[in-house]
Amino acid sequence: MKKTFLAILLAFSLFLCGCTIDMSFVTGDSNDGSTQTPPAQSGKKTEKEEAYLDIECRSVSKLQEIYFGFSDSDIAFVMSFPTEWLVSPKAGEYALLRGGKEIGKVFAGEAEDISDWQEISLSKDNSRGITRERRIEMKDGADGPEFRHRIRYQYEDSSKKTVTMVCDYSELDKSGCSMLTVAPRTESLGNQLNLNMLSHVADGKVIILGNSFIGTSQIGYILQDMLNAGGKQLDMTAVTRGMAEVDTYIGDAALMHEIRNGVYDCVFICGFYAHEEADHLAILEEACNESDTELVIFPAHNEFEDCIKKAQERCPELKTLDWRGEINMLIESGVDMWEFCIDDAHKHSTPLAGYVGAHMIYRAIYGEIPPAELSDTSVLEQANKLFPGYVKTGKVPVDVSLRYFD
User: Fold this and answer.
1) pLDDT tens for each residue of 190-217
2) Which of 234, 253, 244, 254 is nearest to 366 (CA)?
3) Exposed end of the chain (fewer CB within 10 Å): N or C?
4) pTM score
5) Quick one: DSSP state of residue 207?
6) Which 3 state secondary structure label does DSSP give 122?
7) What share of the chain is helix, strand, coil (3-state, %, to 5)?
């Protein structure tokens, strides 16, 4: 009997202690006089909020890419949508249609109706220079709760440009929504003009060091023609040595002596055909640094991309004027490769390729497009025939259908 009584007494005491603790959260009283915050509510959703779990959603099997752009940017925002979706302009935005029915929209900036919707779930990630936020949202509709996906993308660069997509929840299953969240990327719209990248050498002395591609392309001759037509005073020399690599030039004691003693204000270097050229470039960079000479990576058309990247990684402070890349962009835009290449064992560059390289150097030094009239009219006539827009602006045309937000 005594044991039973003691057990009842202990249980009653514990009950009183529990009541005291609970009451302190309600009243805000505590032993130290501070105000305590009530425990957070559990994250359990209401039956209405979880109703989206019972919605049957469409699966996604194939995607199409759509390019969007901003008028003040050379960067396209590439999004992916199910192939059965149609993207149609509508009052400054783009409506998303399936089977003639509007199921969502894409627009620049933030959603203006955020206050009308309740957030049910949120996930975030950062990849490929874009911050991505994916939400499931709910609001009360005439026939019960309505649900939607809202995916927000924001550039991680200084522009912080933002693109938002919203669509009916039922249009994307979990896998499809993940694909639409992760797939978008940014893509450069053509080449970089590099205007004034080398403006500090405008009245100086430059040398282009390369192999037979310098000779067959006649880049030195064409650049000098541009300089004369533009009334520029640049002292320019183009050196061609058959089969030359970077190693060829660091082994030239007389040339390295000139570079170390500041004879040149800028050196353009070609010849990246092996990974070892990255170390050879570092030696040349050290020599240039002794005299504050600008050293520029300037790969010819047949040089190896992995070797160029290796050199850029080895010497990250150096600027690159991508002669090879600009020719390839023009080829991708529709110009026949053989307009730039001679049909021989090495596909040596033609004078048209030399025109492109000279155009790049002129823009980088003077911040302007080369003169439209040259003493040698043959290569200019060919360029005007094949890519007149490039001749006038330096921009490589981009073969994409671009939808602008503004």
Assistant:
1) 788 899 999 999 999 999 999 999 999 9
2) 234
3) N
4) 0.64
5) E
6) strand
7) 35, 25, 35
